[in-house]
Amino acid sequence: MARWFATALALCLAWPAWAQSPEDLVRWIYTSLARPPDRQARGLHHLTTPEQRRTYLSQRLVRLYDANDIMTGNGQNLAAACFEPGFEIPGNDYDAAEIARTLATAATGDATRQRVTARFSSFGEPAQIHFDFIVEDGFWRLDDVGGPGWQLSDRGCDTGTAPAPAGNTGYCYKTEGDEFRFHVGADGRARFSLESWQGGGHSCGVSGIAHPTEGGWVHESDEFGRPCRLEFRITPESGIRLGDAGHDCKMVFCGQRAVLDGLTFGRAAQVACDSLPPPPQY
């Protein structure tokens, strides 16, 4: 009894003060984003940190996040990530006040399993994300997150397939506003990460795997139900140029005034990969 009471007390102290149900917690995830940036208890990121995840997440989701940490070296190599943080909001930038103003939530389910759907606008674009909760050890815990056409749990994270950096060929570039890493493995596939700060403070942040094709590589994904085809082409000057026809990838990975199509990294911007700091968690 004493152990159960201590566990329950710890959970109550850790749970956001006013969140009494799965729907309350989802509303907290979005409304807390309006807090000052120096406040650590903000958004889904806070709930999924190594210190908090065993309180808020199901055992299944804890294993997925733990495996992702292993793949990325605890966030030091996002090019190896099974998934990136920030998927609860489409795009790379957001207006916290707009999200809070337009947020609407609805819960369905029963006493052991619930789905909470959050609908809101981000820079005028409607968004819909759902959060699945189950009861574990007598408490509600987040078990999955998804949106149109995707589920977080579908992104398998096999730590046994993590690449050996020493066996890769790395091409890294740095400009005034960009950091771009491109590592080609022995099978021809490339792991990449890009952080690009552009006009007005808007940015693009994307990482993943690109498959070899004629004249370069291509990365294809379906984030938030939006198909993305990002091309990496070798330029005549032996640089790399990005192609985003229709700006489909920009809609997922960039802020309102930032673009991916046409970004070019020439030989003059190439640097030693070990000279770059660890990629940020965009």
Question: Describe it for me?
Answer:
- There is one protein chain.
- With 282 residues, the chain is α+β, with helices and mostly antiparallel strands.
- It has 2 domains: 13-154, Nuclear Transport Factor 2, Chain: A (Roll); 163-275.
- 21% of the residues lie in helices and 34% in strands.
- It contains 7 helices and 14 strands.
- The strands form 2 sheets. Strands 13-12-11-10-9-8-7-6-14 form a 9-stranded antiparallel sheet.
- The chain is globular, with a radius of gyration of 20 Å.
- Residues 1-15 and 159-168 have low confidence and may be disordered.
- This is DUF3828 domain-containing protein.
- Keywords: Signal.
- It comes from Pukyongiella litopenaei.
